[in-house]
């Protein structure tokens, strides 16, 4: 799946949530998406702890490569939902960030 298809799906999910929760304005939607991102980052943190054997032993059954991969995807998806709410061009933002990283690390 390419970036444009991903952005199209993000747009459809965003539209669905705005219609489903018609009393939620764009500012509140952005706040809700930001809180969701925090939740997803916490879940990723848990997976990384378990991955390296630092999580609670009784929860280790939740640790797997599949769960770790899913949590990384959830963080990316949540961040992209915030970008959509704020009308940020994700492709442009990523391109600019990659150019900055290339300069900083002297990558050709």
* Oligomerization status of the protein chains: single chain
> Helix and strand succession?
HHHH
Largest sheet: none
Structural Rg: 17 Å
Strand portion, in percent?
Answer: under 5%
**Overall mean pLDDT:** 93
Low-confidence stretches: none
Termini, distance in Å?
A: 27 Å
Q: Tell me how many strands there are.
A: 0
Instruction: Choose one word for the global shape.
Output: globular
Structural class: mainly alpha
Number of helices: 4
**Portion in helices:** over 70%
Write the layout of secondary structure elements.
Layout: H1 3-20, H2 26-51, H3 65-85, H4 90-104
Would you write up a description of this structure?
There is one protein chain. With 108 residues, the protein is mostly helical. The protein contains four helices and no strands. Helix 1 (3-20) crosses helix 3 (65-85) and helix 2 (26-51) packs antiparallel against helix 3. The longest helix is centred in the middle third of the chain and has 26 residues, at 26-51.
